[in-house]
């Protein structure tokens, strides 16, 4: 399911508050990195990724590759930082509580 422009814009505004949780280094896209990112997306839904200069490829290419592998959507890519989103319907939410990435 693709997102509407309004939904994407709302998530983009949330990205400003986030710190990078996943760092892609010189090892590149390893299985361990994929597992860590998958776990972060499952529990937080919105995850910021920092790509080092030694990572192979452009930030946009790597973000699209990761999103494709994990069934996520790229919300934004600025410089060497990308933010991915994947909705988790199994995540328990209380009415009026903040979204999981703010907790």
Supply Rg: 13 Å
* Helix proportion: 25-40%
β-strand amount: 15-25%
Major sheet description: 4 strands, mixed
* E-strand count: 4
Report the uncertain regions.
Answer: none
What is the averaged pLDDT score? 86
Which word captures the global form? globular
Whole-number count of domains: 1
Strand order of the largest sheet: 1-2-4-3
- CATH-defined fold name: Translation Initiation Factor IF3
Distinct helical segment count: 3
The helix/strand order is HEHEHEE
Structural class, please?
alpha+beta
CATH class equals Alpha Beta
- CATH architectural designation: 2-Layer Sandwich
Please report the distance between the alpha carbons of the first and last residues: 25 Å
Within CATH, the superfamily carries the name YhbY-like
Describe the protein's architecture and organization.
This protein is α+β, with helices and mostly antiparallel strands and 103 residues long. It has one domain (5-88): YhbY-like (Translation Initiation Factor IF3, 2-Layer Sandwich). The protein has 3 helices and 4 strands. Strands 1-2-4-3 form a 4-stranded mixed β-sheet, sandwiched between helices.
Short description:
This protein is an alpha+beta fold and 103 residues long. The protein has helices spanning 5-15, 31-44, 59-70, and strands at 20-24, 46-51, 73-78, 81-85.
């Amino acid at each position: 399911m693709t997102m509407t422009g309004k939904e994407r814009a709302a998530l983009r505004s949330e990205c400003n508050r986030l710190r990078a949780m996943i760092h892609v280094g010189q090892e590149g896209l390893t299985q361990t990195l994929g597992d860590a990112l998958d776990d972060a997306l499952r529990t937080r839904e919105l995850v910021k990724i920092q790509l080092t200069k030694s990572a192979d490829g452009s930030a946009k290419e790597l973000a699209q590759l990761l999103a494709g592998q994990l069934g996520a959507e790229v919300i934004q890519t600025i410089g060497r930082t990308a933010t991915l989103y994947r909705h988790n319907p199994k995540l328990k939410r209380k009415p009026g509580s903040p979204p999981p990435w703010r907790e």
